[in-house]
Specification:
The chain is an all-alpha fold. The chain has one domain. 70% of the residues lie in helices and 0% in strands. It has 5 helices and no strands. The protein is globular, with a radius of gyration of 21 Å.
Length: 141
């Protein structure tokens, strides 16, 4: 008769930690993939993007925006610069939504990317949303 495979408790905990790491990094990887593809399309001056950017009046900045996207997502993925990258990406995609709205376009794509970035940031480091608050000590007289 076959006996069930018994795994040591440390291996089970290690497997749970690996699964947790995969789940925590999935939104970051998804954001990196989407933003990298977008940046490459901008750097290659894809015809569809050229048309959109010429309508909005920012065609001359298309390559700069592609480089900026790559730099910002790189900063977000590096542990030491994640918070700065998070702020830069949030500002960038907030601005992208503002441009879309000001030209009467649908702002869904930047909003979805921004949502993924926020979820990724929360899963990787939940303290990112509390680190901007400072506790003020009451002044004694």
């Amino acid at each position: 008769m076959l006996q069930p495979l018994a795994l040591p408790l440390s291996k089970i905990k290690n497997m749970k930690q690996k699964r947790k790491n995969i789940v925590n990094w999935f939104p970051s990887a998804l954001a990196a993939l989407l933003i990298s593809v977008s940046a490459c399309m901008k750097l290659a001056s894809m015809p569809g993007l050229v048309e959109i950017y010429s309508r909005t009046g920012i065609l001359e900045y298309i390559k700069i925006l592609g480089v900026v996207e790559l730099l910002f997502i790189a900063a977000f993925l590096i542990r030491r610069t994640m918070k700065v990258g998070f702020l830069l990406l949030t500002s960038y995609y907030g601005g992208a939504m503002a441009v879309e709205l000001s030209h009467g376009n649908i702002f869904i794509f930047p909003a979805v990317i921004l949502t993924i970035i926020w979820v990724a940031a929360f899963l990787r480091d939940p303290s990112i949303f509390t680190s901007f608050q400072t506790q003020r000590q009451p002044m004694s007289a």
